[in-house]
Inverse folding.
């Protein structure tokens, strides 16, 4: 069944957890970094405070995670179970646990500078929910759990003991039989509810209709009687009496002495079941009674005070639901109220300290979206970015003298920085060093570092390749350039010219560069493979493989990339994308990223022609957003030296500058 | 003051007269009369009126502020003035676990607890990857009789994408101009506790975390160095921020001892320094900036410029004291985290 249930904060502290089968912490860690930090999940709105069913399940290493996120308090609720299992009730469990937990411990969590909360008692609540839902799940009952919480008489179960596994069975059954004739509501949660012939269900539902009118009215009277009477004493008496007369004619006992022959008639429908049930219960009863006494409800002003866990849980859930539906239908009260709040809103807009709502943000977010579109960010990416920021900001209070726009600007800056910052270090030189001269202690053999460059036609693959080559030569590496473009006429000659130039330029630096070419018409993958073998033989440090430009939506050309990746085994596959391209950049990046077969993706982007677009560097955002692959270099000019490391700060500044 | 009162009086009287003229019935007449009397009385230049007016004028902004920022200013302003220790380090080093351990120990000292609590409070809470920074208020007493000092321990996420949160504590930028803020804003940071996992640090292990940890440490030390060089005016230096490199998980078999951790880190930082100096320029740097001499030579060079090997001793030049102390967050045996706690208490 369920492997683990964890409640953790965004700051990483596990507040409460229950483990049934040990799960590697890597599962949850990967879940957090993938879904929340890197936002890999393609579905927009992962940060939503919505229910678990709205969040896409996260799968990792045979485990499936269902989760829900409480944004205001920064708590994540995660249920982990084996992917093989199909647990239909798991969403409900996550949702209900979330509602209960927030209700019980929300105040503790709002305190600043505290990470630990006292929630040892939560075990009981969790057990109760789990059992309840497991039962409804196993019955494959389509009825909503919440449906019967709202039934009027759920209070009658108030003498239920805390749901310790062994006791729940014993505790609930007698209470059912005590109150069965009063129209019990919580049958579905009790163990014998699944049996249709159980007197508890059958007697009420089946007999009520054909019974004579007098019987109905009497029952109604009885119902009122029990509700208004000092229930504690009444129940106690009933329980005692039940114990005394828990024999064959079990249905004759009743708290109020109202039991009569009619009830016996009712019982005829299922006599055998009823008697066997009550007999079975008789054995358990003594143990149950003790617990009952401790969790007895008390009466104040003739009203029954709930002390029972199950009912507390139900009331929490019900009130949360009521609040939900109330907030949906909540209409503004009166003209004065709206006027005042409107003025207050305007005022706070200037002074700050305003709690942002969706309406406040909508207009400003539109402006931000426009701004991003003007910066050449693809619409898809801009919309999703804005949605993410909006969700983050709803319910946030602005600072002193902070307008909505500055707050959005700030949030967008954080969001962009987070997105563009690479997950791993991108120091190319150190990577090359670690491959070409591995530490003596490791078992790896020295081999040339292989880089290949792909991209659409005319984006500057060869140019950027020679720029990288120049950079490597300056650092005294021996570079072999492989002419993998065996298709376009002049491509090999173009590279030959580059190599000649680079040789002249870097003679003094001490680098060495050669061209490996096999002419036109050959299979590019085979050429690349030969080039790598040749480089290993001749002692080159780096192999740079040029490839033919290809249209990203041409299936025939793209399919050859998979073979290429398999043959050449590049350490790094870089894609060149030009900053000039607009919305198409998303499709380009996605298609290229997916074209290298399973388990191989792009390692980085080179954004060329950045000098031609000024501030409109939105392409960077579009492609990173689409693929989660970092940008390595940006090309900023025509010279060999015009290649730059990508600086996140620079890009964010350009994107948000309003000039 | 007087002129305004006069002005208001005249307008009020004018309004009242027009109102009386308009109304016919005697009851409204009466009410109007009453209002008029009240207005005239309240606008008389006598003492009580002036005093109440002044009170309203003076108290209104205060009350307004209370109304708008009542709840947050109460907590944040008080806390921001507390001295702070920053917890940094790569993901999975044990930062959040250390935080909860310190918090639990603090709780144990103050509150009476049962046997099971006692056992629990010596163990940190289970943790996962952090997304947001969190801070905890702790008490530091250097000796038994000493006055208890409150301080904040700030935990930062170690995920590479979120490291900017830790660095922004050291070099905060003005959100409006993008310029660095004066050091007065950062002076609350009394030290940086850099945690790393010593058990996976060995460079020969297949999944060595050395380069990751060293890259982060490099960025952190460079930020501190920039802070020093940027804010130094004449002989006036910003308050120094010492760094403690806490080699965690010494309870594990594969862990390197503190001295070896130091050696490995120094070697790796040296390698990073060299490769950074050889790397390409950042995209933000323009050609004309280079010639203008805005960036001094060696500005991005960590430690003593031109030195062959990197050593933590070189950081003293920039008033950054670096220490390496081993310990472990979990496990009753071994050094535990007493050494770190002592360091923290000394710095606060």
């Amino acid at each position: 069944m369920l492997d683990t249930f964890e409640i953790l904060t965004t700051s990483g502290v596990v507040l409460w957890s229950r483990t049934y089968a040990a799960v590697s912490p890597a599962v949850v860690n990967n879940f957090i970094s993938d879904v929340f930090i890197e936002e890999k999940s393609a579905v927009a709105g992962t940060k939503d405070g919505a229910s678990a069913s709205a969040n896409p399940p996260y799968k990792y290493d045979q485990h499936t995670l269902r989760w829900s996120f409480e944004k205001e308090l920064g708590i994540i609720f995660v249920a982990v179970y084996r992917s093989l299992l199909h647990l239909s009730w798991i969403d409900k469990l996550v949702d209900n646990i979330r509602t209960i937990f927030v209700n019980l411990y929300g105040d503790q969590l709002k305190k600043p500078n505290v990470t630990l909360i006292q929630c040892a008692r939560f075990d009981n609540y969790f057990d109760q929910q789990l059992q309840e839902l497991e039962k409804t799940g196993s019955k494959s009952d389509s009825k909503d759990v919440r449906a019967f919480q709202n039934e009027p008489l759920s209070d009658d179960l108030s003498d239920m003991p805390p749901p310790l596994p062994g006791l729940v069975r014993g505790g609930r059954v007698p209470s059912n039989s005590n109150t069965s004739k009063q129209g019990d509501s919580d049958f579905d949660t009790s163990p014998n509810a699944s049996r249709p012939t159980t007197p508890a269900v059958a007697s009420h539902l089946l007999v009520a209709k054909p019974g004579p009118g007098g019987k109905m009215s009497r029952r109604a009277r009885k119902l009122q009687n029990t509700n208004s009477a000092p229930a504690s004493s009444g129940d106690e008496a009933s329980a005692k009496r039940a114990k005394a007369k828990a024999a064959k004619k079990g249905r004759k006992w009743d708290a109020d002495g109202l039991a009569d022959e009619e009830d016996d008639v009712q019982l005829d429908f299922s006599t055998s079941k009823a008697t066997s049930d009550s007999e079975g219960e008789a054995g358990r009863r003594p143990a149950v009674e003790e617990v009952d006494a401790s969790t007895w409800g008390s009466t104040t002003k003739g009203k029954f005070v709930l002390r029972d866990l199950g009912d507390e849980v139900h009331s929490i859930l019900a009130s949360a639901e009521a609040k939900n539906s109330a907030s949906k239908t909540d209409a503004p009260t009166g003209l004065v109220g709206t006027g005042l709040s409107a003025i207050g809103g305007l005022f706070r807009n200037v002074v700050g300290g305003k709690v942002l709502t969706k309406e406040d943000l909508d207009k400003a977010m539109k402006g931000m979206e426009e701004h991003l579109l003007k910066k050449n960010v693809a619409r898809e990416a801009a919309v999703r970015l804005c949605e993410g920021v909006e969700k983050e900001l709803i319910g946030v209070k602005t600072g002193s003298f902070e307008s909505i726009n500055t707050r959005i600007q700030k949030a967008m800056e954080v969001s962009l920085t987070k997105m563009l910052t690479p997950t791993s270090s991108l120091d190319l030189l150190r990577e090359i060093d670690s491959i070409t001269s591995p530490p003596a202690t490791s078992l790896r053999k020295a081999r040339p570092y292989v880089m290949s460059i792909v991209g659409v036609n005319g984006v500057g693959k060869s140019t950027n390749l020679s720029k990288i080559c120049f950079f490597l030569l300056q650092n005294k590496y021996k570079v072999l350039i492989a002419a993998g473009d065996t298709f376009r006429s002049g491509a090999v000659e173009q590279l030959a010219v580059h190599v000649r130039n680079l040789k002249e330029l870097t003679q003094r630096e001490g680098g060495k560069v050669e061209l490996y070419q096999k002419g036109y018409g050959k299979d590019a993958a085979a050429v690349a493979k030969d080039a790598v073998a040749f480089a290993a033989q001749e002692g080159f440090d780096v192999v740079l493989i040029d490839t033919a430009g290809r249209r990203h939506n041409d299936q025939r050309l793209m399919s050859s990339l998979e073979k290429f990746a398999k043959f050449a085994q590049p350490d790094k596959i870089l894609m060149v994308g030009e900053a000039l391209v607009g919305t198409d950049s998303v499709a380009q990046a996605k298609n290229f990223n997916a074209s290298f077969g399973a388990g191989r993706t792009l390692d980085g982007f080179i954004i060329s022609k950045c000098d031609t677009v000024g501030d409109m560097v939105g392409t960077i955002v579009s492609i990173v957003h689409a693929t989660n692959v970092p940008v390595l270099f940006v090309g900023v000019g025509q010279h060999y030296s015009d290649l730059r490391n990508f600086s996140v700060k620079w890009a964010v500044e350009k994107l948000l500058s309003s000039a | 003051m007087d002129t305004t009162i006069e002005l208001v009086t005249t307008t009020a009287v004018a309004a009242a007269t027009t109102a009386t003229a308009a109304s016919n019935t005697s009851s409204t007449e009466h009410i109007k009369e009453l209002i008029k009397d009240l207005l005239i009385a309240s606008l008389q230049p006598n003492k009580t009126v002036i005093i109440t007016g002044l009170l309203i004028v003076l108290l209104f902004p205060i009350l307004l502020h209370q109304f708008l920022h009542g709840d947050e200013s109460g907590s944040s302003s008080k806390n921001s003035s507390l001295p702070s220790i920053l917890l940094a380090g790569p993901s999975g080093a044990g930062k959040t676990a250390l935080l909860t351990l310190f918090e639990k120990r603090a709780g144990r000292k103050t509150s009476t607890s049962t046997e099971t609590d006692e056992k629990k409070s010596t163990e940190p809470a289970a943790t996962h990857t952090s997304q947001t920074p969190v801070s905890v208020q702790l008490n530091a007493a250097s000796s038994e009789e000493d006055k208890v000092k409150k301080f904040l321990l700030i935990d930062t996420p170690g995920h590479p994408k979120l490291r900017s949160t830790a660095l922004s504590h050291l070099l905060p930028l003005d959100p409006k101009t993008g310029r660095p803020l004066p050091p007065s804003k950062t002076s609350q940071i009394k030290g940086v506790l850099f945690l790393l996992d010593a058990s996976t640090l060995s460079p020969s292990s297949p999944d060595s975390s050395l380069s990751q940890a060293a890259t982060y440490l490099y960025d952190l030390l460079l930020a501190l160095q920039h802070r020093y060089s940027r804010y130094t005016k004449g002989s006036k230096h910003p308050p120094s921020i010492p760094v403690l490199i806490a080699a965690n998980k010494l309870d594990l078999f594969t862990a390197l001892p503190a001295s070896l951790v130091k050696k490995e880190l120094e070697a790796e930082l040296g390698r990073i320094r060299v490769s950074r100096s050889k790397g390409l320029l950042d995209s933000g740097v323009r050609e004309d900036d280079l010639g203008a001499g805005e960036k001094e030579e060696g500005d991005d060079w960590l430690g003593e410029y031109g030195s062959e090997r990197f050593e933590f001793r070189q950081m003293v030049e920039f008033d950054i004291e670096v220490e390496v102390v081993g310990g472990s967050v979990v496990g009753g045996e071994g050094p535990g985290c007493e050494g770190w706690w002592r360091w923290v208490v000394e710095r606060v």
